[in-house]
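Good morning,

Attaching, inline, the backbone tokens for the sequence recovery test we're adding to the shared suite. The designed sequence is right after.
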């Protein structure tokens, strides 16, 4: 399955709106966890597998390919790392994290 792209139909939406493409990409199993694990710098694929218990190597490489195609990560000599766009996503998730914490405390 190809990585979702703004301007093209995605799962759940035929509009091609950037937000819908982003939600399709980020809603895929393990995608946000992989982005989270790259938050502090490059991580090799084997280390990602160790950090994400239950993640299969085939799904890991599929997600790495999608995130690379989307411009959120890049392969470096030290492993996979967030691009500036990926780092921006990390910042955009901060308010969602704050909301989720508030939600959890209200339960």
């Amino acid at each position: 399955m190809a990585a979702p792209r703004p301007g093209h139909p995605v799962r759940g939406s035929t509009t091609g709106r950037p937000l819908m493409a982003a939600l399709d990409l980020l809603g895929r199993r393990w995608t946000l966890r992989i982005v989270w694990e790259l938050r502090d710098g490059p991580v090799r694929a084997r280390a990602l597998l160790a950090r994400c218990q239950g993640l299969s190597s085939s799904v890991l490489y599929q997600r790495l390919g999608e995130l690379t195609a989307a411009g959120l990560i890049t392969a470096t000599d030290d492993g996979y790392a967030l691009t500036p766009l990926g780092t921006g996503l990390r910042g955009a998730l901060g308010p969602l994290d704050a909301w989720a914490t508030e939600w959890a405390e209200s339960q």
